[in-house]
């Protein structure tokens, strides 16, 4: 039986941390993809499409040999390839909030989320030669009131710069989270329940040694 080579199609340190938490050895090869919502596309369809596209893009490159380094060896080249992709979106009032481009946009996002309930949608997909499977996690998060000066200090910390919705539930932004219904790991960027199910269906074990 061939060994399985699991690839995470993301440069996200949080996703690597979460996979490591459940004992899933993996490599990291970020997807090369323009991430944008199609006209008329629902947020649910968008995040699932992007998660699947990221996994398939990396799988395609690997199968073409683009990222199979000379030091990978014949064993690695013969391994069964499985690629994990994920996509996360913050949604409020029917609109998606992505990563803020600058301070002004970050403060506007935090002001919009302040004292309100919003949704965090996180899709995960597994692609291999036989096709792609995906699952969607939807959580509801309520943030407490965030004063403008507090939001400015939070921006200055550097944490919101690369976070959808301009906050991180696993970091300093945790103090803003009044309530959460759904998946904590999904809000972080990789829903572990859904990920575990997909890995099980693909025959990829969890609680494995990294060694």
Provide structural commentary.
By secondary structure, the chain is an alpha/beta fold. Helices cover 34% and strands 25% of the residues. It has helices at 13-21, 43-63, 73-78, 103-113, 148-156, 184-188, 192-201; strands spanning 4-8, 27-28, 80-92, 95-97, 117-128, 131-143, 177-181.
Q: Tell me, briefly, the overall form.
A: elongated
Main CATH class: Alpha Beta
Q: What is the CA–CA distance across the termini?
A: 20 Å
Strand proportion, as a percent range, falls in 25-35%
- Bin the helical content: 25-40%
Please identify, by name, the CATH architecture: Alpha-Beta Complex
Main sheet characteristics: 7 strands, mixed
Total number of beta strands: 7
The sequence of SSEs as H and E is EHEHHEEHEEHEHH
TL;DR of this structure?
By secondary structure, the chain is α/β, with parallel strands linked by helices.
């Amino acid at each position: 039986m061939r060994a399985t080579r699991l690839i995470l199609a993301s440069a996200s340190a949080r996703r690597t941390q979460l996979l490591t938490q459940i004992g899933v050895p993996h490599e990291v090869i970020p997807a090369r993809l323009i991430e944008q919502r199609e006209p008329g596309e629902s947020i649910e369809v968008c995040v699932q499409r992007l998660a699947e596209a990221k996994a398939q893009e990396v799988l395609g490159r690997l199968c073409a040999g683009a990222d199979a380094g000379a030091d990978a060896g014949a064993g690695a080249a013969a391994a069964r390839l499985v690629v994990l992709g994920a996509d996360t979106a913050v949604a409020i009032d029917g609109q998606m909030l992505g990563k803020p481009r600058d301070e002004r946009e970050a403060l506007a996002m935090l002001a919009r989320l302040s004292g309100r309930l919003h949704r965090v949608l996180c899709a995960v997909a597994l692609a291999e030669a036989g096709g792609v499977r995906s699952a969607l996690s939807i959580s509801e998060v309520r943030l407490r009131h965030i004063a403008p000066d507090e939001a400015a200090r939070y921006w200055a910390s550097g944490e919101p710069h690369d976070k959808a919705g301009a906050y991180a539930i696993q970091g300093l932004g945790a103090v803003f989270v009044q309530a959460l219904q759904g998946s904590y790991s999904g809000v972080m960027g990789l829903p572990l329940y859904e990920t575990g199910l997909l890995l099980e269906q693909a025959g990829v074990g969890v609680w494995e040694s990294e060694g």
